[in-house]
Write the structure tokens for this entry.
Amino acid sequence: MIIDTHLHLIYRDRLSYPWLASVPPLDADFHYEAYHREARRLGIAGTLHMEVDVDPAEIEAETSLVGQLAAAEGSLLRGAIASCRPEEEGFAGYLERQLANSFVKGFRRVLHVVPDDLSEGQLFRENLKRLSRTGLTFDLCVLPHQIQKVVALVDLSPDVSFILDHCGVPDIKSGGFEAWKTPLAEIARRPNVTVKLSGLPAYGATDWTLEDMKPYFAHVVDSFGFDRMVWGSDWPVCTLGGGLSVWVGATHALLSGVSIADKEKVLSANAKRIWSL
């Protein structure tokens, strides 16, 4: 059984995605039905939708759309990680509205597409502290050189559960292991951070192999262990590196020497615990 903690859905007829024009392979519709067919064959029994950086005016519309899809019979959707803007005054009111919606399990503000100092603003940091004791998580999506920036966020909010997306976004294609390994180990020292085993296929060369992935996976395990690791498909971004079936197969291969108990933690149990699924 697999819980996918990182599914993106793209409905261009319903929502606006300003960034898609810069990534032609993803500038298309990626609807739930296409994901569902493949996911069920692979043993995926539930999934969390990850926000897709829609136009800010449509953030709540995105959550509403995903909620509608989740209401359909047989849907694998179990919750949403919603977009947010902690740097804005309206965050407190937005948070209150989301707290009334049990479908929302956490938030994300992609930080590698904004100035590095955005997360250093007082308002941003104070608003993140509002997540304390709410049970809502905050996903960190940053490049390796930015990890030190978000370490400060994590330290300022020790009662907030943070999720480090895509293993900290290592540049596997260009052999970026050395630039990534120390920042990853540093943020892993914070007990309120969980790493997400996701994204790796998209960061490798077009002809990546399991051997390319092994040293990165080993360092993630050494740094976080299996009690603080969840799995995500990053669909449809994973199609840039082979697709959903390829990534699930690679994941099983990476976990081939791991105990059944630890496999279960990574593939489902930790996600169930963190998001009360």
Q: What stands out?
A: The longest helix spans residues 260-275.
